[in-house]
């Protein structure tokens, strides 16, 4: 039997190359092989109190971007979390058996409580319960997420097991992480340090809809080394990052050309970056075009969202009817 895959996407801004290789292409593979549910986690984003305009804008954008990049409404269920109020109902049920002590011990909660002491709200505390509801509403068994979500997933298993034990049933599965093994790539940023991330600033990220001039400028300004290294010297981190980016978008001949130059100590990083910028543009251009045209095609986006909401509700409706029955909410009229 194929797995039921569920994953949430935080609507936190434009997609960058790291999101593409770290999340989007995995989802594209999953939709081919499994019953997959992907949703924009817009309920979750309320913990930070966005304005209605900001909320709508970022949710629309990220939905349209995933659609543009190939999540296919006929192959997967792509929807908005808020189009599935059944999730909120399941969240409320699960909250009855989620304890303050265990929620307070969650690392992401402790970090947020420390970094934003004026906004330690109940939604933040119960974030893992809502996430469990997202998964269990479709009886999801596989969750493709990064390492940072492992603890949340562990909580989802706890809440699932607790429900089953309380009601003497084996109704909910134990959701497990979906790991891609060796295929899990870490895309480096342009600032010469860690992985590409919005939090490292604009200049660190190659956004998929960066204009050609912007993209070129960012790459030409990427941190590298000042000059050629000694023959045979090991690569510095910023230089390794440039090679890692090249490995994603350039052909084998280009890569071995610069590898050889690095080995022999004759490499000029300006030339390497020029080549990387050209190859990056070739890679990004079709994605950028698709994203821009999809964002403008409100009709296509609306149709996909409606279709996704209908498919998701079919699954959620079935689960909630059964859950209410299990809990003892039985109609007597
Ligand atoms: P950011 O760090 O820019 O805020 P997010 O945390 O919103 O990015 O990431 C969304 C998804 O993209 C996650 O699945 C995450 O694992 C993936 N991702 C983000 N940055 C990278 C990266 N540099 N390399 C690989 N995957 C990444
Ligand atoms: N917490 C996830 C993140 O920060 C997003 C998310 C919300 C999610 N609900 C989910 C992921 C359910 C997987 C399954 O990335």
Task: Summarize model confidence as the mean pLDDT.
Answer: 95
- The tally of domains stands at 2
* Spans where pLDDT lies below 50 across 5 or more residues: none
Q: Tell me the name of the CATH homologous superfamily of the largest domain.
A: HUPs
Strand percentage: 5-15%
* Basic shape: elongated
Count of helical stretches: 13
Largest sheet: 3 strands, parallel
User: What class, by secondary structure content?
Assistant: mainly alpha
Instruction: From the 3D structure, determine the CATH topology of the largest domain.
Output: Rossmann fold
The count of DSSP E runs of length 2 or more, i.e. the number of strands, is 5
CATH architecture label of the largest domain: 3-Layer(aba) Sandwich
The end-to-end span amounts to: 38 Å
Bound molecules: adenosine-5'-diphosphate, tryptophan
**Helix share of residues?**
40-55%
How would you describe what is shown here?
By secondary structure, this protein is mainly α. It folds into two domains: 4-186 and 298-327, Rossmann fold; 198-293, Tyrosyl-Transfer RNA Synthetase, CATH 1.10.240. The chain is 55% helix and 6% strand. The strands form two sheets. A three-stranded parallel sheet has the order 1-2-3, with helices on both faces. Helix 2 links the parallel strand 2 and strand 3. Helix 9 runs antiparallel to helix 12. It is elongated, with a radius of gyration of 23 Å. The model has no long low-confidence stretch (mean pLDDT 95). The structure holds adenosine-5'-diphosphate and tryptophan. The site of tryptophan has 13 residues, from strand 1 and helix 7.
